[in-house]
Amino acid sequence: MFHVKLSKANGGGFDNPPVSRETIGHVGFVDFLGAAASVCAALRTFTVWSKPVTPEGEALLLSAALPLGLDLQPHMMVFRQLQAALLEGNTRINLTSITAEREIILKHFIDSLGCLQGGWLNGSTPLVDLGTGAGFPALPLAIIKPELPILAVDATAKKIEFVTRTAQTLKLGNVRGLAARAEELGRNAAHRGQHDRVVMRAVAALPVLAELALPLLREGGLLIAQKGQLSDAEYQAGREAAEMLGGELFHVEHYHLPVSNDARSIAIFRKIRATPELYPRRSGVPNKKPLVDNS
Length: 295
Prior knowledge:
Elements (H helix, E strand, L loop, with lengths): L20 H29 L5 H11 L10 H15 L10 H13 L13 E4 L7 H7 L5 E5 L2 H13 L5 E5 L2 H4 L9 E7 L4 H8 L3 E11 L4 H13 L2 E10 L6 E9 L13 H4 L7
Parallel strand pairs: 1-2, 1-4, 2-3, 4-5
Antiparallel strand pairs: 5-7, 6-7
């Protein structure tokens, strides 16, 4: 902020030299440019945020949620704001390749809410969303479960900045963001063996998910891993990896997403003893060299 103090010559009773007309003119021009830039930025944001969700989009979201046992009517305003925030944020950083309204609703919102199948996320026991990306499933879950504290974790700091800012804008006080790699978090004493529940929506194989998440859980904690179609080979590999990591893969939920009918599986792991100090391995290794090959 620029402050101008009056001099004695100007009648202000201060010792500053008088401010010339040229200086005042320069300050005014700088202030004008700053104000103009702020107005332009606000107009750009307003243009995106004021773009309405189509009636067809609202109907799709409401109808697709019903087979999941969810009535989203009380939350429609917040989902509208979330869609607008995602589109606006995507103009500044690469958040997602999914930008069509129908795809956002089905592949981001409804798919995220599918993690609720089986009741493993019921209650208010804190949850870690590991690999949240642009905030999925953390943000949709936070909207319909305000009692659920969620720590959204991702390795990309700019994505976590987006998630944090969006949670604040949507008044989702139950969401916190943390920029960190899962492998590093699993070796951090503040997080290793400290969490009750971890959720992951990922394309990585179950042995990879288990190595990244199980070290974070305390004994008795749960990993809820949402996958696409789960093969017998990947299931068996997940069981073997879990045993190496101090856990067990004890249940799988199978279902199909509404509308798209895409197959989904939710694999439930439980931590039964401390994870050996060897795990997780250094950053990048779990993905490149899974503990158990399921090919």
